Structures are given as structure tokens and as C-alpha cells.
Amino acid sequence: MKAVVIHKEHDLRIEDVAVGDPGPGEVRIRVKAGGICGSDLHYYHHAGFGTVRVREPMILGHEAAGEILALGDGVSNLTIGQRVAINPSRPSGDCEFMRDGMRQHAMEMRFNGSAMRFPHVQGLFRQQIVVEAEQAVPVGVDTPFEEAACCEPLAVCLHAIEQAGSLVGKRVLVTGTGTIGCLTILAARFAGASEIVATDISSPALEIAKAVGADVVLNTAEQPDALAPYAGGKGTFHAAFECSGNGAVMAGLLNVVRPRGTIVAVGLGKEVSLPISAIVTKEIVLRGTFRFDHEFAWAARLIANRRIDVRPLLTAQLPIDQAVKAFELASDRVKSMKVHLLF
């Protein structure tokens, strides 16, 4: 079966890979669509990020959906032809984090399309794949595959929303309106936020943020002090979600979050110094958020019944033999939000 394989920066190849029959507790899936994520772009442009480097050819991709082709022994909760989203997260073992219900922090974690381990954990951008049955999460019978493939990034955002506690009736700020930022807006609105303000330096991205539910969008490239009015009276927002990965933006949130508000760091970027005095005197809660667990199945249900509608984020769907073109398009924030490969 054909797969999208990264060898080094800007060396992306379509190669044949083997696919076997599913063993006990496994299923074989015909992959139909896969979304190109920011980490995929880091592998494409830089062969990794931080200390994580591609050290052997690796199939990319961790956002994908398809249909069940074959069932292994003991699999009774899925059927041939069923549409599923593929959960790339595979925690295992009996560590304290697994026992405490923090599966995304498991000491033994395998995540599809990741070079963090060696040998690398191969990804989902391939025509067929055998996975554990629990990784195949059903969606609707008519759910478009490119929408189902958004379950993984939506799960990330649902997990982020949970870190802030109840958002019912709250005023929310989202900084950075790429895919994760826009999905965070959708998740915050679903969670009951009464007002959502979004910032970015890209006008096209802000247009999509407005389309998915932001009440106010602010271009901080054109208006660097656009958030200044929200700093009055010790701050405005009950919760802020920093999705850009810009450290300077993170520091600035302390001015606009109200006392006992919560800042959730969603995006990863360079390290930054934070004014501890503001955190102390305003009793601000600073939370991280990492991946997801039960939220994946939640995301699948919300996308399947369109209680969260991801269609405004979908830019283009290109066939596997145009993978390089798809990655270049996905790299251009002016032209794209979410690009999918079709298999």
C-alpha cells in the first residue's frame, strides 16, 4: 500500500509499505482522509522540532479517518464498512499515571506519526493500516471522512477547554486562530462561553475565527495594542487560551485576565519569563494542556452530529500523489487552514 514517508527536510516520498491481516483485537482500515498538522509540517520543513529528529524514514500523519475492511478475532463492537476516526494515541502499561486516569501521561506511550521514540512510531498517512480495535472510533454513517479526520485536533481542544473549568456565561479570549485556535473557539462556544474574543496576525485566519463563532476578532499585527481596552479594571476575561505558541503573547495575557481567571497554554513555542507578581496578586491560575484521552470519543460524537461543525476550517483535499503540493499549501497560512490528503 502507498504511504507518505518523510526522509529528511523537504524529502517527502510516496512509497509502498506492507499491510498485514489484523490479529486478535485488531482491525484493518482503509484510510480515506488525513489532515496535515503543524507537527507534520515541522517534520516536512525541519525534520523535527526541538530535540525530536527524524532518524529513519517515517510515515507521517496522526489525523485520519477511514472505513473498516477486516476484523481480527474477538472484535465484536465494529463492523465491516463502518466509518471510523483513528485515535493515534496508544498508552499502555501499569504506571501510576495510567492508574490515576491520566492516560495521556503514560510512561509507555506510542503515538502514530511521532519521532519521539526510536524506532519511530509510524503514522497514518497510508492507504491501509492495521490498528488496535479501540483506536477505531465510530462516526456517523454519512460523516465525510475529511470531517471525521478532525477528531484528533478537536479532542486536543476539548481537553484544553476542560482545563479552564466551567465556561458557562464566561468571557473568553483565544490568541492564535490557526486550526487549534479555531477549534478552541468552537469548543468554548459549545461549553457555554457568552463572549469570545480572538486575536491573530493573519486576516484570513481571523475571518475563519469569525465564521466559527468569535464575537470579536482583532488583528494584532495591524493594531499591536488591540487588547489594551480589555486590561481595564484588573482585566476582563475569565479564561484565556494561548494557541499561538508566542511567549510574548502569553506574558501579555496577565494584563487582560481578571483576578482568579485561568490561562491555558495550548500552543508550544519558545520559553518566556512571566511576571510572577501579577500571577500572585491577581491569583491567576496558569494551566498547561497536553493531548487528550476520553475526549477523542467525545469529539467523534460532536463531529458526527455536527454539534460542532468543522466545515469552515476545511481548505482543500488533495490526492496522495500530490502530497508535496498539499504540504506546501498547508504551510501557507494566507491560503489555507486545514488541508487533507485523500487516499
The helix fraction, in percent, is 10-25%
Rounded to the nearest angstrom, the distance between the terminal CA atoms is: 10 Å
Instruction: Kindly name the structural category.
Output: alpha/beta
Oligomer: single chain
CATH class of the largest domain: Alpha Beta
Average of the residue pLDDT scores: 97
List low-pLDDT spans: none
- SSE order: EEEHEEEEEEHEEEHHEHEHEEHEHEHEHE
CATH superfamily of the largest domain: Medium-chain alcohol dehydrogenases, catalytic domain
* Tally of domains: 2
Polypeptide structure, described:
The strands form five sheets. Strands 3, 7, 8, 11, 12, 19 and 20 form a seven-stranded mixed sheet that branches. A six-stranded parallel sheet has the order 15-14-13-16-17-18, with helices on both faces. Strands 2-1-6 form a three-stranded antiparallel sheet, covered by helices on one side. Helices cover 24% and strands 30% of the residues. With 343 residues, it is an alpha/beta fold. α4 crosses α5 and α4 packs across α9. A hairpin with a 2-residue loop joins β1 and β2. The longest helix has 12 residues. It folds into two domains: 182 residues, Quinone Oxidoreductase, Chain A, domain 1 (Alpha-Beta Complex); 132 residues, Rossmann fold. The radius of gyration is 20 Å and the shape is globular. The model has no long low-confidence stretch (mean pLDDT 97).
